[in-house]
């Protein structure tokens, strides 16, 4: 039975879309990593809780098929703030998140990085530690 579960999860991973604007942070990538981890031995993996595994698969399959989107259609494709789907996608892209992180750094850290001769990741030089 583990063979069937493994193949079902592999098929789901193939069908699950990847969001290229969120490199390494999208749900499709996370799902693939979790399936690879859960089924380390491939078809020979022993499932500790088969019922929970089946429930998880069914939930993910419903999400992937837009079951709830079709069951509960929305009147408008905006949130309560009025932001559209495309604007949300743009705000959550990797580039926008990195830009917001840069803005959050603060003045002191920005000045220290600009005027320092070495990068902050290098740390203090050997022999100068107290």
Please give the structural blueprint.
Blueprint: H1 2-15, H2 27-38, H3 50-64, H4 67-71, H5 85-91, H6 94-104, H7 107-115
Helix pairs in contact: 1-2, 1-3
Structural account:
It holds the Pfam family UQCC2_CBP6. InterPro entries: UQCC2. It comes from Conger conger. It is found in: Mitochondrion matrix, Mitochondrion nucleoid. This is Mitochondrial nucleoid factor 1. With about 130 residues, this protein is an all-alpha fold. It has two domains: about 70 residues, no CATH class; about 40 residues, no CATH class. Helix content is about 55%, strand content about 0%. Helix 1 runs antiparallel to helix 2 and helix 1 packs parallel to helix 3. The radius of gyration is 22 Å and the shape is flat. The N and C termini lie far apart (about 60 Å). About 0% of the residues are buried. The C terminus is likely disordered.
Sequence of secondary-structure elements:
HHHHHHH
Largest sheet: none
What share of residues is helical?
Answer: 55-70%
* Structure class: mainly alpha
Assembly state of the chains shown: single chain
Number of domains: 2
Name the overall outline: flat
Head-to-tail CA distance between termini: 61 Å
Q: Rg to the nearest angstrom?
A: 22 Å
Per DSSP E runs of 2 or more residues, the count of β-strands stands at 0
- The low-confidence parts are 126-130
The number of helices is 7
How much of the sequence is in beta strands? under 5%
Residue-averaged pLDDT: 79
Subcellular location: Mitochondrion matrix, Mitochondrion nucleoid
Keywords: Mitochondrion, Mitochondrion nucleoid, Transit peptide
InterPro entries: UQCC2
Organism: Conger conger
């Amino acid at each position: 039975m583990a063979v069937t579960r493994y193949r079902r999860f592999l098929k789901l991973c193939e069908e699950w879309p990847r969001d290229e604007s969120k490199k390494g942070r999208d749900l499709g990538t996370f799902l693939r990593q979790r399936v690879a981890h859960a089924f380390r031995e491939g078809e020979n993996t022993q499932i500790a809780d088969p019922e929970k595994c089946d429930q998880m698969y069914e939930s993910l399959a419903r999400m992937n098929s837009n079951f709830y989107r079709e069951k509960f259609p929305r009147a408008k494709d905006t949130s309560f703030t009025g932001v559209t789907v495309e604007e949300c996608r743009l705000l959550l892209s990797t580039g926008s998140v990195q830009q917001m992180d840069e803005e959050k750094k603060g003045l002191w850290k920005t000045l220290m990085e600009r005027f320092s001769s070495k990068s902050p990741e290098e740390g203090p030089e050997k022999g100068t530690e107290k």
